[in-house]
Amino acid sequence: MTFPKRIHCIGIGGIGISALAQLLVHDGSVVTGSDRSTSVVTELLERKGIKVFIGSDASNITRDTELVIYSAAVPDENKELSKAREINIPLMNYFEALGQVSQNKKTIAVSGTHGKTTTTAMITKILVDLGYKPTAVIGSLTKDFESNFVPGEGDLFVVEACEYRKHFLHIKPDVLVITNIEWDHTDFYPTLYSVIDSFAQMAQGIKEGGSVVFNSLSATAIKALEGIVRKLAPYESEKVSKLGLIGEFNVENAKAAKAAVRALYPDADEKIIDESLRSFKGTWRRFDFKGKTKAGALVYDDYAHHPTAISATIEGAKEQFPGKRIIVAFHPHLYSRTKSLLVEFAESLAHASAAVIAPIFAAREQSDPEISSEILAQYSRRVGGNVTALNSFSEIEEWLSREGKEGDVIITMGAGDIYKVADALVGTPHFTN
User: Fold this and answer.
1) Does residue 174 form part of some domain?
2) Same structural domain for residues 166 and 297?
């Protein structure tokens, strides 16, 4: 599909749609957008010449707008969506647009419950270092490229593919990477088996002659790939050199990235691949070092918002900093996820030396009185956790400032705005809430 000249993106501050906006500009469109508030992402877009309106207003949609693309987080009653419908401007959600971009390209799509972003960024860096000049849409800002979008040449496309509401089914890749499969997005998937089924559908939809890169030691991946006739490429036996990132989970991501590149380019120079992975710098909000507190505690920020990711990050920090206290500030994301995985969250937070929990980030959901951060803290204390729930980011910042001593490691975790606490701890101007 050739996209029209003038496009408006609603929710453009989202990490995926902001990368798409940059891609559309790269391909020749004039793009504007809107979001609820400014962020590091909207500031990046403004620096790249994309006009971002703060707040939703019908006047953001003009009659010369030829297409409106909207984030999945945008409510149906959004004023700009209503205006676009009123004057008959075509609408497309982010995932539909992404599917159109990938339609006629040689596509590597990276899926999985955990590790998608890091693996996507690793694949992109390897391909760049090999000289293939890929275009990439990545689920975070990357340190190697200083963006979540990498402009390329030709038809090679690398994209992060999210399973929420089966959105990834819009993409028909040549190579599908499945990093792992666990129960998540519990507001949409009632059981683990329904998640597995969506990955099975994704695998069935890859292009003829395509490959699936997966971990053949994973029971859930094996189940999802039953009866799949495309080429299967297990990644767990790949050898990778020592990384600059913490944790065994990143070794697994690197193996998946290497296998994905080799699935598309079997003769690629392995020495270049290994050096590319060794020098990979990581992405924003993936064990991202922020600095030190006044007391001398090290501060990191991480996107972990699922129990498995929380446990893996804490254990990785323990390996990196043996004997140090690991202090976690966690921002639960969604009432449904927190409620469905309550026991798992409680157990994962108990791995920390101490933890503090922020009020649940509702995002797209209504408040649920049956679950709260205090209930989660209580469950975690029952299994041995040293866990406290507080009412605001400001209180959490004060608590961490008192609790974190020289040599301690503080990690802010979650899919919401908890990174602002990390920024405040190391001297970025304080926020109000």
Assistant:
1) yes
2) no
Written as tens digits, the pLDDT of the chain (433 aa) is 789 999 999 999 999 999 999 999 999 999 999 999 999 999 999 999 999 999 999 999 999 999 999 998 899 999 999 999 999 999 999 999 999 999 989 999 999 999 999 999 999 999 999 999 999 999 999 999 999 999 999 999 999 999 999 999 999 999 999 999 999 999 999 999 999 999 999 999 999 999 999 999 999 999 999 999 889 999 999 999 899 999 999 999 999 999 999 999 999 999 999 999 999 999 999 999 999 999 999 999 999 999 999 999 999 999 999 999 999 999 999 999 999 999 999 999 999 999 999 999 998 899 999 999 999 999 999 999 999 999 999 999 999 999 999 999 999 999 989 999 999 999 865 333 3
Q: Position of tokens 């990143």?
A: 250
User: Residue 433: inside a domain, yes or no?
Assistant: no
Name the H helices within 321-432: 335-340, 342-349, 373-382, 393-403, 419-425
Per-residue CA distances from 424 to 329, 345, 401, 432 (Å): 13, 26, 10, 11
Write out the residue range of the structural domain in which residue 89 sits.
Answer: 6-94
Contact 425, 397 (CB under 8 A): yes
Considering the domain architecture, whether residues 373 and 274 belong to the same structural domain is answered as no
Residues 6+ apart with CB under 8 A from 42: 12, 13, 18, 35, 52, 54
Q: Write the CA distances from 163 to 197, 267, 429, integer angstroms.
A: 11, 31, 36
Q: Which residues contact 53 (CB under 8 A, 6 or more apart)?
A: 32, 33, 34, 35, 60
In order of 26, 178, 255, 266, the CA distances from 229 in angstroms are 36, 16, 23, 20
Q: Is residue 1 part of a domain?
A: no
Element (H, E) at 69: strand 67-70
Q: State the amino acid at position 199 in one-letter form.
A: F
* Cα-based distances in Å from 399 to 2, 59, 274: 53, 44, 42
Q: How far apart are CA 49 and CA 29, in angstroms?
A: 12
Count of all residues that appear for the chain in the document: 433
- The CATH number assigned to the domain holding 53 equals 3.40.50.720
100 part of a folded domain:
no
Q: Could you give the CA distance from residue 61 to residue 66 in angstroms, rounded to a whole number? A: 10
Structure tokens at 272: 């270049």
